[in-house]
Amino acid sequence: MMVSFDMKTGGVTGEQGRALLEIAVVGHTNTGKTSLIRTLLRSTRFGQVDDAAGTTRHVERATIFAGDEAVLNLHDTPGIEDVYALQDALQAIASRNKRLAPNEQLEKFVTATALNDPLEQEAKVIRQVLRSDVLLYVIDVREPVLEKYLIEIGILGKAIKPIIPIFNFTAAHRAELDLWRRKLAAFNIYASLELDTVAFAFEAEKRLYQKIQSLLEVHYTRLQRLIDHRARIWSQLCISAARRIAGLIITTACYREPAADDQNVTDTSSAAIRLQDFVRQAEQNCLVDLLKMFNFTDRDVALQKIPVQNGYWQLDLFAPGILKAYGLDVGSAALKGAAAGAGIDLMTGGLSLGAASILGAIAGTGWSTFRRYGKEIQAKFQGVRWLCADDNTLQLLYLRQHQLLDKLMNRGHAACHVDQVGQPSERGDLPEGWRGIIDILRQNPAWNASSGLHGHDDQYRLIEKSLVDALLNLKS
Question: Which class in CATH covers the domain with range 3-215?
Fold first, then answer.
């Protein structure tokens, strides 16, 4: 998605010189206007967000694109700080010019307000309102419905432009939200929307554009292209993030450190430290990639140090699927020869074949197999065991990443809090067939991020899909 920011208020045109949809984001001070635009832009770089009132002092513009096509301009306006003085000024204009229509009264006010006038900021807002096609009126539902807000809505209504109230900070404030809806109905305003700028929901953004479509038919087709584009980009983003996490799980499950003698405390301790460092660094690298994908920074998410436990593992030549992993099948010439030498019928008793015969069969597959699995085969001869991340560590790693992905997918770019990712308080659901997935991964050490040997492996792709579907809560 492309966006551009500037401080101008002039018109921007789209393809073939057609005027873009102009949207003014308006409301009282400190209700979340800049935050809303950040959320729609997926960017923390636009404007300034602060708890102090009147943070935005000028009209700022951002353009949203669907691919290379400019679709709309968002205009962030200053808050209306002195609504009573503005009301008095407009009433004075109306009393002196009784034939002026409501929107003409606003135009007269803008023209009559000079620089450094006490109502200069309000004039900036009204000027942009008159230039825009639709108004997004941002409401902090935590605030009581005061008279000044109702006066403000009445003044904006004079522009004779569609108004869509955007309810912000709606979590745990349902009663206040219902009251706001009833008050807005008195102004015949019903096309409102809940769009929390801190807790992002893509469907809410989609509904916003659909509401504008229903109000401004002339922009319907262009907005539909934007909706389709952003839906496609969002889907691709979530899938890419889930695949990155799947890669982390696969790489970590496949990783092992050789530990030839568990009686050698020094060697075992060194291997354990190397394993812990690998897992923690792999998770940190994944976090960096995910933050970049979602356009966040390391100031947005804190990843607590994962506790890494280790366990021993040995190559099991008789594990289901391991023969296929080594490029063998019950019909291979190598295994037929080994079976004949051992006097065993593979079709009925292949899994009882002795290790020596299996190793002989593997040896018969040639240099390519040894180049890929030589360490494991040699280790089997020498009785080497491997130190790897144990089952609890892998489960915790998956659950933490699931938690992280959920936070990133639902975090608005106006959020100022730091999301903590630690040990999940509740044991979440693991992917279906988790135990079997881990067993297969441990039998395939070549399936790591750097080997590049798994790209065309059907079993690898099936495991990756299972992990991605589970992370995105998709039904297979």
Answer: alpha beta
